[in-house]
Structures are given as C-alpha cells and as structure tokens.
Structure prediction request, 324 residues.
Amino acid sequence: MVVSGITYFIAFLASFLIVYLLIPPFSKLAFKLDFVDKPRKNVERKIHREPIPLTASYAIFIGFFATYLVVSKGISWETGALFAGGVLLLIIGTVDDWYKTKGKDFPALPKLVVQLSAAILVYASGIVFTGFINPFSGDYIVLPVVLQFLLTILWIFGVTTVINFSDGLDGLAGGLSAISATTLFIVAVAMGQTNSAMMAIILLGVTLAYLRFNKPPAKVFMGDAGATFLGFLLAVIALDGAFKQATVLSLFIPILALGVPIFDNLFVVIKRYLQGKPMYQADASQAHYRLLRAGLNTKQALGVLMLLSTCLGLTSIILLLVQV
Prediction:
C-alpha cells in the first residue's frame, strides 16, 4: 500500500491536536480527583515542588488510537493486539500511579505480569522477530519458534521498561520517544513499511503535543501508564518495521534509535543486580540524575541526553543508508 506524504502529515497533525486539546481538561480533572504527583521529602527522584497532574497518559492513548484506527481503515489481529496491550498497560499503570499519589509504591510483580501479557498478545498477533539473513551465504536464517518467542517478548518488555525508567526528568521520556519515533519513521519510509511508518508518525504527533506541557518546568506528567505505553508502541513499531530488514547490520538500527534509554538502563539494571537490589526498585542512578548531581540544571541535562539520542538516531539512519 502506497501512503502519500500528505496522509502522513494529516495523521501527525490529527494526533498532535487531539492530545494538545485533551491534556488541559484531563489536568483539571486530575486536581479534582487528587490524581497528582506530590513532591516527597527526602526522595531524590522527586525534583518538582508542586503537585503535577498524572493524566497525560489518557490523552496520549486516545490521541494515538483515535488517529491510528481511522487511518488504518479496519481492525486486524495486529491492531487488536496493540489496542488490548495498550489498555492493559494503561490500567496497571493507572493503579501504579494512584499508589504514587498516596505516597506508596505498587508491587512490581503485577506490573511484570501485565507487561509480559501485553508482549505475548503482540507475539500472538503475528508481530514477531523471526530471524535474519546470513551475511556470508545470503540465506535467511529462521530462528526456532522458542527463540522467536523469547526474543520478541524480551524486546517488547525491555523497551517498555527502559522508557518507563527514563521518565524521571521533565521532557525526557517524551523527548527520547519523539527522537526514536522520528528515526523509526524515516527508516520505515525508506524501507517501504507503511504501517510501521504510520504508527511512528502518529506517535511523534502525540509525544510532541505532550512535550508542549511536559517541557521544563512540567505542567503535566504521563506517569507509569503513559511511559510504559510509549515504550510498548516503540517496541512494536521497531518489530513491525526496522527488524524486518533482517540483515545483521540492520538489527542495530532500532537498538541505536532507542540507544539512550537502552544503554543507560542496562547500566542501571546491572548496577542494581551487582548491589543485590531488585531491578524494579526505583532509585536515582539513571544518567539524568547523575548529570543533575554533576551540577547541570534540568534543561542542560535534558539537552545533553537529547543531543546524544539524536546522534545515535542519525547513526542508525547511516547504517540504513550503508545497506541501500
């Protein structure tokens, strides 16, 4: 299916406007329901000083699917799995965020089960990492089904988690998601993968609209519900697009496109493991906290990480061009 540039632009604009218009009323509702992230004393991760609404996730969810369902012109197994997985993440994320409004921490196990369930839904719908081309023989190597399952689930769960872990600085998770979405859009268009490209451009629209309210100093948060949803979408977009190129070199394209959250949080997880801490135990060991402790302010730390993410995104595009 050929998709024109104007169609991509309309999808981008529609998703942007929906989120931009929905965030203010959802924010007002958050204050009425006391669904806000309150500053917590002696918690290094809580650097804001005023209560912040946690309702941007619902605007993001509505903006993405309202646009995607219209432009996709029909429901498929893949679309259904994406929607169902998104709903699951939104529900468990909302429960987690609600605990945070009460100054409590939600147990990690239910979140783990739900995130894995969302990933399994995607796998069952047929969005799967199946294999790659042998660079020496040119033959396509089909991985065993068990390995296909494990790698697909690990990728979706991993990206969902690292984007969520990165949501600790105003504008960071949204900014990283926007840069990754832009990179994956360019890659998908170059490879003729219209569905992946459409999802990426819609995701770019919703993240940029969110950033209008989340840039420093943030007026709204998306919470775990929104951050896990964005990570989930980015993982599926990569599976449905960049990973289908199937050459060994192309496997690095989505990894580099999501390089900052992936590499930073791999470091964090390894560090927590070596210290005997649970992987999900929140702390202030991510790169943005380290930059703040080094003396940078919020905007400077954000700028450094955005620049690094952009460089990695450009590197992934260069890898694509090398193969053309």
